[in-house]
Amino acid sequence: MNDDILKPGRVAVITGAGAGIGAAAARHFSSLGMRLYLFDRDASALEEVARDLDRPNGIRTLVGDVTSIDDLTALRDGAYDSFGEVALLMNNAGISAGASPWDNLTGWRQQLEVNFLSIVTAQSLFIPRMIAQGSRSAIVNLGSKEGITTPPGDTAYSVSKAGVKVLTEQLAHELREQVGDRITAHLFVPGYTWTPMNASHRAPGSEKPDEAWTAGQLLTYFEGRFRHGDFYILCPDNAVTPELDARRILWAAGDIVEGRPALSRWHPDWKDRFAAYVRS
Fold first, then answer.
1. Of 157, 221, 232, 277, which residue is the catalytic one?
2. How many structural domains is the chain composed of?
3. 203-217: per-residue pLDDT in tens?
């Protein structure tokens, strides 16, 4: 369904392209022959990614901050001035700053600005131009399973990613109503993936745990689901199967429907019942 987007010569714009999933996306899309406009706040990391790809006529880079509307405007204008179209906008940039329900207001603001509001801004800037260009295109927003089952630990991160889920669902609906399938939206939800952000939560120099996928594996899985036209691109890893993901998501929804305590999966009175449910 989306073979006309992931094809040689078409243009992918990627935020947070200097490392992790964004850098893997740049490598993957480049291997398909796509032209790239890469955006990151880390100039040296961005330069290294572009240099490794070694396609000077098919790659442009811009150093900037996704929380700046001026920088995102420059990204849009640069992409259209350089290439004349955007086939794929991947809103990938994200952070995990740590913030509980009642502390670290700075962390709250940072995560909402980077993980959520930057996507709202990018969509407001790119979508009118994508509609006007006429050719088929797509928007991919990076979500998280923490925005679906919302586990305890980093409340602000979970809230920001829950917002991305709802935003992208609404976006898909509105685009379908206005332009049919000419512009589609997709929620990209990684499993446990070994990225610099995840590595920062372990001791310096730690090797990739067996449970994690590499970012390259993640993009290979993404391509297959995206080409198929899936909206929810929910990715497994080496520890969590699609079946286990489905059970966890259904249990979380059951908290509301069945009147269980909030986050009952982690509640002392319910965690054994959740384990039995998963085993069944």
1. 157
2. 2
3. 888 888 999 999 999
